[in-house]
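User: quick one, fold this
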Amino acid sequence: MLRPAVALPVLAVIVVVVALFTPEPVERGRGDVTTYSRTESGGRLAYDLSSRLGWRVGRRLTPLDTATEGRIVHVVLAPREDIGVSETHHLLESVRRGGALVASVDEGSALADSLKVATGGRLGRFVGPRENDDCRDTHERRGGIFATPPVIGSIVWHRPEPSNLVTFANVVVRQRDILPAVVGFGFGRGRVVLASDPEIFTNDIIRVCQWQADVVLARALEFVRGDSGTRRTTLVFDEYHHGFFTPPSTSRILLGSPWGWAAAYAVLVIALYLILGGRRFGRPIPLKEELARRSSAEYVESMADLFQRGGKRNYIQKHYYSAFKRTLARKDGINPQLDDAEFARELSRSRAVDEPALLALLARLRSAKAGEAELVRAVSEADAMTEAFVRRR
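Assistant:
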């Protein structure tokens, strides 16, 4: 059976390992342009197309707590909840450091306000690039609600538009005005792509070859990928603000927060202390003082010396006197508190006893003038008489 010093650290290690490596379920919400959805308004085709174009795609299921490294491209398409000022700051700071951002323009959002951009009031028909329009009729999805190109708004700037602006798709208003719908521009050391409407990247739009939304997405991703000097390789879709999130877990608390690090360190230190402090390299060796036990004779000698130094001879004398009478009277039920003469008479009635010798011995045991030697002899004779009475039984 394991000792507590070993069993407790082993149990603690097992608990920590189970807590760290237990799979964490992903809570599913009801998003709109979410990459989990294969419905008409979902964004799974954009996710799969990005993977086929050579990107390492992933999903973010937690809030963005800090700016990320320069090789990551964040994709934020029509979040159900506004990403907020703090996360907007982290997103744009990541772009400034060399990352990139692909986002839809949501009117009144913190991101749109930071970039001074909005969707215009003029609606138009979505138009993709036309220079390589080789779609066959079999590739086009006919009928249904999306039989015609989507009608969306254009991008409007509340500041002078960037000088390095690149347009990937437009909207045509009344067959005359052509306004930008998907644009890209440099931002710090990174790049940003904005779409006036997230509908452009939904499953039901991308799957229609003639509208060329897939071409728009591919060119936008190639733009944010960058040149050979700043090649970005990872594409992360924001699913947290679509209602998809990973619930709090023990592993995230232990490994992702200062309090968790402190708790794990404390458990490790205590476990090491118990293991090293409780370990034995052999059978325990008893100390010498544990082997040297006092004998009964030593105890008797110690008590006798104590009584002698305390001058308690009268106490010892009374003790032996009373004990001697109780021993003799116990068998016949005689009261040991009787005076010596009456006690001897009562005792002689039940058994043969030498009354004069008994009275003389009792007188010696209670004599105040008896010395130590005389007291020792009287006690020895009392023990001998007691043994003689016991043998007669």
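User: anything notable?
Assistant: Residues 54 and 359 are 122 Å apart (CA to CA).
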